[in-house]
Amino acid sequence: MQARIFDYEGERRCDSRVDLVKAAISTVDRAVQGKGIAAMKISAMGPPVLLERMSDGIRELQSFYSHLCDEQECALSYEELKEALVSVSGSCNTADIEDRFAELDDDGDGKVDLMEWMNSVSLGELSEIMMREPGVEGPRLETVLTEDDLRLLQSMYHRVDAVCKAAFDSGVKILIDAEWTAIQPAIDKVATSMMRKYNRDDRKGPIVFNTYQTYLKDARQRVRRDLQMAQREGYRFACKVVRGAYIVSERMKAEEDGRESPICDTYEATSASYHGVIEDLLDHASRPSIIIATHNAETVKFAVGKLSDCPPERRDDVMFAQLYGMADPITYILAKEGYRACKLVPYGPISNVVPYLIRRAQENSAMLGTPAVAQERALLFAEAWRRLTGRGS
């Protein structure tokens, strides 16, 4: 196997970013004690190339299970798992396999389903299995993680955990941003592990929020999967829901790779995806905490309409968010009507903040010509007229 070389100066930069995010948490806590929200990117906590390999490993883990289990909804029995492991390794230690099956069978029903498999089999264990499997080469071999890879991943987990603990101790909500699809499986896994740890305190409420980009075709399926996992394991599910921020680069990358784009084909399809996710979240019996982050008036209208059909206390679990300086009429109207509304402010060095704002501009430019933009323009003209004349239009 070819050795992989990582930039250890980059590791030091990752360590310094922990302090930066902690500083943001402290600043927010001082400004709005008990109501603060901060955000972080997992790609700032570890090498992105390693997150890509981790994501490839997660996909391989799911693919390996599918290979063992022909039907999507099936679950592995002890005998099926034993047969699969023997076929891979060529040897059999019955006692070890029995112990491992008991660990995997979380609910004790004598079967290991996909969720139990994905939660219980580590990437290190998968790498060991694949190294014993004959004929593993090419792209599949690239998903095998070395000891150095695993050590660096552990360092990344420690950094993320340090940030989440600081948020938990101060009562500040920490939003884990969604990023590009090549590393999103790794982000989801890290976010889930942090929710599992920090979203169990009923007094503080959920602290860690994952982010779902609804312009992705699989967004609704992923939200449903993660809701089910949280309900099964007994922690509070919390998320931020957005349209998506990497539309240009994702489509270009898919075209370069000759594969189907993961992005919804039309604006209307993205809206349907967004509204479907909101519907699933608001209807779920576990009352997940939701931040609906959108500048789209139609999506806000849809969410408010759904909330009106829910018990009044459901409002306590829902917050609306817009970027500071954008969609102000939406924020002010929501607040005036008694909904929880907030402004998100980019925080950090200018060199890091500017790319974020560029992605926001690209995201908004993709909406030019849509009804949402026409409505926003009308609101801006009406406000300009009011300020110039001192009266309504």
Automatic annotation (TrEMBL):
Gene3D superfamilies registered for this protein in UniProt: 3.20.20.220, EF-hand (1.10.238.10)
UniProt keyword annotations, A-Z: Calcium, FAD, Flavoprotein, Oxidoreductase, Proline metabolism
One Pfam family of this chain: Pro_dh
Major enzyme class: oxidoreductase
SUPFAM superfamilies named in the record: EF-hand (SSF47473), FAD-linked oxidoreductase (SSF51730)
Domain of life assignment: Eukaryota
Annotated PANTHER family: PROLINE DEHYDROGENASE 1, MITOCHONDRIAL, PROLINE OXIDASE
Name recorded for this polypeptide: Proline dehydrogenase
Species: Perkinsus olseni
